[in-house]
Amino acid sequence: MSDQVVPAPVIPFRTAVRAWFLISLQTFGGPAGQIAVMQRTLVDEKRWIGQRRFLHAMNYCMLLPGPEAQQLATYVGWLLHGTRGGLVAGGLFVLPGVVALLALSAVYVAFGTTTAVLALFAGLAPAVVAIVVQAVVRVAKKALNGPALVAIAVASFLALALFGVPFPVVVAVAGLAGWTLGRLRPDALPERAAEATDSGPPPVVSDDVLHTEAPSTRRTLRVLLAGLLLWGLPIGLVALLGTGGVLTEQALFFSGTAVVTFGGAYAVLAYVAQQAVSVYGWLAPGEMVRGLALAETTPGPLIMVVQFVAFLGAYRDPGSLDPWAAAVLASLLVTWVTFVPSFLFVLLGAPYMERLRGNRSLSAALTGITAAVVGVIANLGVYFAVHTLFGDSSRLEWGPLGLELPEPGSVRWLAVAIAVLAAVLLFRLRWSVLRTLGVCALVGLAAGLAGVPVG
User: Fold this and answer.
1) C-alpha angle 60/64/68, rounded to 5°?
2) Residues ≥6 apart with Cβ < 8 Å to 77
3) Vertex 187 angle, CA 186 and 191, to 5°
4) Dist. CA 102–CA 95, nearest whole Å
């Protein structure tokens, strides 16, 4: 069945494109801030979509792995103008961030060892530790509504921090635990919140018109085949350069992480950092937090930090390619394999949204995964703190247990002070992430120029 696109006179496609581009320039501050921008622009100001329908779409995107705000943009674009609307909305959502982070990655490679740049990162990295702590608190308040969910969160943290269980296994077990609780002890899971009602004038496009397609097997197979080809074709092309090449490794690795990023970027970054540092050698231990600091200062989803990882890894191990060419190619390739699945999930599943949202077993499984995300993000915070606030660490092994501990004598007092400052700004004064990062970067720069050790 072909797309039944919303008639052009309702919302001209060019008007929508301009609106999506302006939204993309404001997408700082993580998914909450990005969704708030779309809420204000699309629901409150333009009234292109009603509140109930917007939340209906958002709830579906929350079920999916990947960046939920970008997926929500794709979904709303699909509702307004069919497949082309979804592709344009989702693509524009990430485009400014891709360009900005590509440029910042190049600056880091070219000038990352200069005093000024080192000092800036000396201020940014400790602030990221406080930002991750804030993320733990926020997600915990929403997700841990009962002792069973608290137990899942604690278990996920211990599995990662002490036993080194792979992140995908933690996600799978948490989903199974949530599903089991939903079947055997449904009272242990929180009740679904009541749906919000629309307020204000009616939307420009009625809900009946927004349902642009009906589900069909033919359409599903067509979208699935196209998505898999677009996802896999670049991987096959780079494999021609040699299956052991860094481009192939990165394409395959980040294709895998793209389908397990439940709970946002923070949930998967500890796994990415561990693999990128210890297994593949793409980064030094402290560089992941620097990449996240850069991603926090650019528009778009935070998961675009993988672009930074790919850039550095390919620059340092370019194979037969020029280092700069390999870095740019890897950066764009990893961005592609990270976001193509998000488009595929939305365009493939949108017609079935009502059926999926009504599935109690699926909701229970995802409730368990969301609880586990709290422990996953907490593990990320510990990882960043060890490698940011201390100069050295050692790993203790005892049977199946393993724990990385910082060396007390290697504490970086400037980093500790900036982390405390960032925590005060975020928790006490309730500053935005971007404003906090700006102040901490200036503190680090001033300290470096004053001769304070920043390494």
Assistant:
1) 80
2) 16, 20, 85, 86, 87, 88, 89, 90
3) 90
4) 11
* Nearest-angstrom CA–CA distance, 315 and 344: 30
Q: Map residue 455 onto helix, strand or coil.
A: coil
Residue 319's φ and ψ, nearest 5 degrees, are 65, -130
Distance CA 310, CA 109 (A): 12
Tokens of 443: 């503190």
Query: Which pair of tokens denotes residue 455?
Result: 């390494």
Distance CA 442, CA 450 (A): 12
DSSP 366-377: HHHHHHHHHHHH
Amino acid at 102: L
Alpha helices by DSSP H, listed for 240-359, are 246-258, 265-274, 287-296, 305-316, 323-349, 353-357
Rounded-to-integer distance, Cα 384 and Cα 31, Å: 21
Which amino acid is located at 173 in the chain?
A: V
Would you place residue 37 in the very low, low, confident or very high pLDDT band (cuts 50, 70, 90)? Answer: confident
How many other CB atoms are there within 10 angstroms of residue 142's CB atom? 10
CA distance 135 to 287: 20
For the chain, what is the radius of gyration of the CA atoms? 22
Residue 404 is predicted with a pLDDT of 86
When the pLDDT of each residue in the chain is averaged and rounded to a whole number, the result is: 86
CB 352 within 8 A of CB 74: no
With 80 as the cut, is the pLDDT of residue 32 above it? no
Q: Which residues contact 445 (CB under 8 A, 6 or more apart)?
A: 116, 119, 120, 123
Task: Please report, as a single letter, which amino acid is at residue 364.
Answer: A
- Mean pLDDT in residue range 230-240: 88
Q: Could you give the angle at which helices 51-62 and 68-111 cross, rounded to 10 degrees?
A: 60
DSSP annotation of 409 reads G
Per-residue pLDDT band at 1 (split at 50, 70, 90)? very low
Question: So where are the chain's domains?
Answer: 97-190+213-406
For the cut 50, the answer to whether the pLDDT of residue 7 exceeds it is no
Token pair belonging to 450: 């004053």
CA distances from 170 to 163, 180, 225 (A): 11, 15, 29
Closest residue by Cα to residue 82 from 8, 187, 175: 8
